[in-house]
Design a protein that fits this description.
heterodimer, A: about 600 residues, 25 helices, B: about 500 residues, mainly alpha, MetI-like fold, 3 domains, 3-stranded antiparallel sheet, 16 helices, about 5% strand, globular
Chain lengths: ~600, ~500
């Protein structure tokens, strides 16, 4: 039973025993290079059956490639539908004059990415000879494609020249010495640089679509390349320069601390970008200074003093009584009319107070706990204030952003909130308390037994019915909650697998040094369990990303919905569904493929998932 | 015995210095749990009440009466495209989902095994192609794939007599794919009875042959013998199957029997089964808690479990006894089943077990469409089918590959060393070991496939979700419809996991 349940979605990542085997530290013995004819004989024509297979599959490849190319380069294809509506696909109707906000957000994320890559010392060394070989293959593929594709004479010649050039570069690099290597990050940024350079040279995607039915301009005349070449160049500059800056500074500052700060930034900055930069809330300064800031100051000061006192090891019974009292006050605030922010913060304080004995100890530990409390207050107050403030971005529809951006947003919220919930569920399912176990198991098995789409429809249709009078939840929020619940059930199963792999001795050792149950769980069991559970959880994260497409079914203007229903609905671009869907597939394919490859590589490097 | 006495004295000491109630671990444990349970129940109660109020305020009633009323629905595909009642419409949806799941599982397994083996091939090109297949298909969301296949299919040329790749045999057009249909005809049930008798015979023959093999050591080809016995019976059955017409009489008698059983008997039967299982559970539980000396020690968890099981059994018995509907439903469905089977056997002697028909194209109005003769996959069905089969095949292929690679190389070398042929070593050495690794994740994939068929709603294939949505859009009964969805999928998931677990247990290595 356990075996059957634990293998959820690990298959995408863990299914490569052969590769894992070959990654042993020793250098493999050198195998003499085969000559081309020997290689062909060994790999393609080793037996009659193999030869027949080779011939058939070569014929099939050529036929399929030819069919695909004549589909893609058919003059009937409306690739301009995708190019013209690129802005719609990415952000739906986000106001164009505010578009710099999108670029700022992207730039900030790229800055974070550059710094993180430097601090985690990402990237591996690639042999230049290997790069040469890859270039040879790419050049050969371009030549083959050019010969099969229905190009005009001029285009054929240009593409043939490009192919020959790439092959030439490959030939030049191939005989390079084995010792000569180059960083994979350099290669990656080189490829991006080439792509962005091409934006400056070639005017991709002419778009000048003006709807005839409604006098509304969806995209101004111009090209995708024209409007995005400058921002993209800046983006690349930001990423590369942040990487090099971080490389300079990383040796001068405490690495562990800065890694913690970076992780926190990854968790928090999307929230700020979304609610402050993209949403552009229209703050009411008077209200801010009269209500929000005093509440914040009150809670941070009173809360941190209280927590400093509660984390004293000698506090004993009194602390529990006070924390329980705060909890009851927190629940009680819902009975009387009060600002929502006060209710939330009181409850938050109650939970921090209840957790205080777990984190009690010497002075530095207590001060750290108080600091965490203040940071939580800053983030919570800031966010609640921002969410409660009306947005200045006026767009049709009930949400200010759509397209790929909303796909990413819901994905982010799902992952950030489903993870703690999943850990809680897993702890409840493995706990010694039978009622906890029953509730958690029922919940997990119920959610895992029904398809995601039924849960999504249930939430998008039924949530208004379950809410009390005066409370309101937008459809996006309801659907995000559905996603969170669904993913939490699956993550819980992954975490449970990790929890079960922690040996009995670890529990006993923790008990022997006198840890409480909570301390044992948080400081001994969970860190080990989560480490083991990372590979299946990454698989689940990729699955979640793919599942965001389901938003289209319940009619949220996400990436897929716009590609499938909105663009083909424009009079100029009727029947362009296949082109748009190919684009969408390509985007998903690139993201999911690189996520799974990157995680495999990282796992192999740090030996994750092995014990 | 001495240690036992010591234990007892220490317990007495502990009792005399009892901790206060609010510090007692057992008390805290149960108060916390019951507190949480109370919170959960209270919030569910609150939400249910809220929903009731809101539904009443909007004048929506949540009865299941729509199941009996005629809906105004046309379904795109299924056993009944214009169902007479709402319940019938949902039933058609369920059948469509199950049909898709079963067909999808079969084809995904076959394709996945082929791709997985191709991934292990020593032909470089085949290996790379299989890798490309896997990486592409599993990294593009299934929904995107389905919608893409649907868009491609509906953009195909209009259906016409000349549209097929092989006219009259295979037609591919914007109305889907149509091919010849082989279907079971009137004589099928009598023929299958002959085959069943053949299977029985084959079972005994196989046993006999194996016995002979064990005694003499000569190769008796037991499996081939059994196979040919079944084939012979099936072949003879094609001619003599009408003799089994009398089976209908047996079913008729069974149906009469079911009509005459009183519901009280069924109630007593069900209750005694429940009591039997509860009693057996408690007996085994006591046995497991008893020490070697026969001393029984129960902790609070054990008592909770016993109360839980006992209360569950009691509630089940009360429900069975108080609700006559359950018993009469069992009786009625048994009677209906046997009446249906009885009717299947009432045919004249000339009926054939199978028949076949070529696809046809009809033109009722302005637009041509496929007729009912051929086996037709509408664009919706085809899109969902190709979607789930291709997508799942990529995962299945990885599972197969991982399973086979996980068999240690030494096993194959050892098999070669004792002189087994390649086929023999695969059949007797590699596969039995690989299967154990492959089965659990395969079961998971089958579950995923079944749940993934629900995405059919995006391409308009009439599965349970799509039909349900149409029904609640027309009747406003969203809550009951969703309850039916959840119940249906939970049943499917449970069934599949029970089957897979059954095989898992059977396949497990019996360790010493």
């Amino acid at each position: 039973m356990t075996n059957f349940k634990d293998s959820t979605s690990t298959d995408q990542l863990n299914s490569d025993p052969a590769e894992a085997e070959s990654s042993s530290r020793e250098l493999p013995p050198k195998i003499a290079a085969l000559s081309p004819s020997e290689w062909l004989k060994a790999n393609l024509f080793s037996s009659t059956f193999n030869s027949i297979l080779t011939v058939i599959s070569v014929a099939a490849i050529l036929l399929i490639l030819r069919g695909l190319l004549s589909f893609i380069f058919n003059p009937l294809r409306q690739w301009s539908a995708t190019a013209t509506n690129m802005r719609l696909l990415m952000t739906q109707a986000y106001p164009e004059n505010q578009y710099v906000r999108i670029w700022v957000s992207l730039g900030f994320l790229l800055f974070l990415a550059g710094v993180s890559l430097a601090f985690w010392r990402a990237g591996r060394r690639v042999q230049i000879a290997q790069v040469g070989k890859q270039l040879l293959a790419i050049g050969a593929f371009i030549l083959l494609t050019t010969l099969l594709a229905p190009f005009s004479n001029k285009a054929t010649i240009i593409w043939l020249l490009i192919g020959v050039f790439i092959i030439g570069v490959g030939m030049f690099l191939k005989p390079a010495d084995e010792q000569k290597t180059v960083s994979s990050l350099t290669l990656l940024s080189g490829a991006f640089l080439l792509a962005i350079l091409s934006l400056w040279v070639i005017p991709y995607g002419h778009h000048s679509y003006i709807s005839t039915r409604t006098p509304k301009i969806l995209a101004e005349p111009g090209t995708v390349a024209m409007t995005t070449k400058l921002p993209w160049t800046i983006m690349l500059g930001v990423a590369i320069s942040s990487y090099f800056l971080a490389c300079i500074f990383r040796d001068k500052i405490d690495e562990a601390k800065s890694k913690a700060v970076l992780s926190a930034a990854w968790l928090i900055s999307p929230l700020f970008l979304l609610f402050l930069v993209l949403r552009d809330p229209d703050f009411d300064t008077g209200h801010l200074f009269s209500t929000d800031i005093p509440i914040f100051v009150f809670f941070s000061v009173v809360g941190s003093v209280l927590l400093l006192w509660l984390t004293k090891p000698e506090i004993g019974e009194k602390g529990r009584i006070i924390s329980t009292a705060i909890l009851f006050i927190g629940f009680g605030t819902f009975a009387i009319s009060m600002l929502m922010i006060v209710r939330i913060l009181t409850l938050c304080l109650a939970f921090f107070a209840l957790a205080a004995p777990t984190f009690s100890g010497q002075k530095p530990a207590r001060i750290r706990y108080a600091k965490v409390w203040i940071a939580t207050m800053v983030i919570l107050c800031w966010l609640i204030t921002a969410i409660n403030t009306p947005s200045t971005a006026k767009v049709p529809g009930d949400f200010f952003i759509g397209g790929f951006a909303i796909t990413l947003m819901i994905f982010f919220f799902t992952m950030v909130l489903a993870f703690p919930l999943g850990v809680l569920l897993a702890l409840a399912r493995t706990s010694k308390f039978p009622i906890f176990r029953i509730i958690s198991t029922t919940f997990i098995e119920f959610i895992r037994g029904v398809p995601l789409i039924t849960i999504l429809i249930f939430f998008s249709v039924m949530v208004p019915l379950f809410l009390p009078e005066g409370m309101d939840l937008t459809e996006i929020a309801a659907v995000t909650i559905a996603f969170i619940i669904f993913e939490a059930a699956y993550l819980a199963e992954n975490v449970r697998g990790g929890l079960q792999s922690v040996t009995r001795g670890q529990h006993e050792a923790a008990e022997a040094v006198g840890m409480t149950n909570a301390q044992k769980t948080f400081f001994i069991v969970l860190p080990q369990a989560l480490r083991v559970a990372i590979p299946p959880m990454v698989g689940q994260i990729i699955a979640t990303f793919k599942e965001t497409g389901l938003l289209a079914i319940i009619g949220i203007f996400d990436f897929l919905y716009i590609a499938r229903s909105v663009i083909p609905g424009q009079t100029e671009y009727m029947g362009s569904t296949r082109e748009n869907l190919l684009f969408v597939s390509l985007v998903y394919l690139v993201i999911c493929f690189s996520m799974s490859k990157a995680s495999q590589r990282v796992e192999k490097r740090v030996g994750l998932g092995e014990r | 015995m001495q240690s036992h006495a010591e234990e007892k004295s220490s317990t007495l000491k502990a009792v005399s210095q009892r901790v206060p109630l609010w510090r007692d671990v057992v008390v805290i444990k149960w108060v916390t749990q019951i507190g949480l349970l109370a919170v959960v129940v209270a919030s569910l109660w609150f939400l249910a009440g809220q929903a009731g109020d809101n539904l009443r305020a909007r004048n929506i009633n949540t009865g299941f009466d729509f199941l009996e009323r005629p809906p105004d629905i046309q379904l795109s595909e299924g056993i009944d495209t214009s169902p007479a009642t709402g319940g019938r419409a949902l039933w058609v949806g369920m059948v469509n989902t199950l049909r898709m799941a079963v067909v999808g599982i079969i084809f995904a397994t076959v394709l996945g095994v082929v791709v997985g083996l191709a991934r292990l091939s020593n032909n470089w090109l085949i290996k790379r192609l299989a890798g490309l297949w896997i990486e592409t298909l599993r990294n593009v969301p299934l929904l995107v794939q389905m919608i893409f296949y649907f868009a491609v299919l509906t953009a195909l040329p209009r259906v016409s007599l000349e549209s097929g790749p092989i006219n009259g045999w295979l037609h591919v057009s914007n109305k889907g794919i149509s091919m010849p249909r082989i279907f079971i005809s009137d004589g099928f049930y009598q023929w299958i009875t002959v085959v069943a008798v053949g299977c029985l015979a084959a079972f005994f023959i196989r046993k006999q042959r194996i016995k002979k093999h064990d005694l003499t050591g000569e190769n008796t080809h037991a499996v081939y013998w059994a196979f040919f016995t079944v084939c012979t019976f099936a072949l003879i059955g094609l001619f003599i199957h009408p003799v089994f017409g009398f089976v209908g009489g047996i079913f008729s008698a069974l149906a009469t029997l079911f009509e005459n059983i009183p519901t009280t008997l069924i109630k007593v039967l069900l209750s005694s089964i429940l009591i039997f299982f509860a009693a057996r559970w408690i007996r085994n539980f006591f046995a497991s808690r008893r020490s070697a000396t026969g001393h029984l020690s129960l902790i609070d968890d054990d008592i909770f479990r016993m109360i839980f099981v006992g209360a569950g059994a009691l509630i089940a018995i009360i429900v069975v006894v108080a609700w006559t509907g359950i018993s009469s439903w069992i009786l009625n469905s048994g009677r209906d089943l046997f009446h249906m089977l009885e009717a299947k056997f009432e045919v004249d002697g000339a009926a054939r077990p199978f028949d076949a028909m070529k696809p046809d194209i009809v033109k009722p109005g302005k637009f041509a469409n496929y007729g009912t003769n051929g086996l037709t996959m509408g664009p919706g069905f085809a899109a969902v089918f190709f979607g789930v089969v291709f997508y799942t095949s990529a995962f299945v292929a990885e599972i197969i590959r991982g399973g086979i690679l996980a068999v240690p190389k030494g096993q194959i070398e050892a098999a070669n060393a004792v002189g087994l042929s390649r086929g023999q070593s695969l059949r007797h050495i590699v596969l039995p070991q690989a299967i154990r690794i492959i089965l659990p994740p395969m079961g998971n994939q089958y579950l995923n496939l079944t749940k993934n068929t629900s995405l059919a709603i995006a391409v308009g294939y009439s599965d349970i979700v799509q039909v349900g949505q149409t029904v609640y859009n027309q009747t406003g009964k969203s809550l009951p419809v969703m309850a039916i969805w959840m119940l249906f999928y939970l049943t499917c998931s449970l069934t599949i996991s029970v089957i897979v677990n059954f095989y898992n247990v059977r396949m497990k290595i019996v360790e010493r």
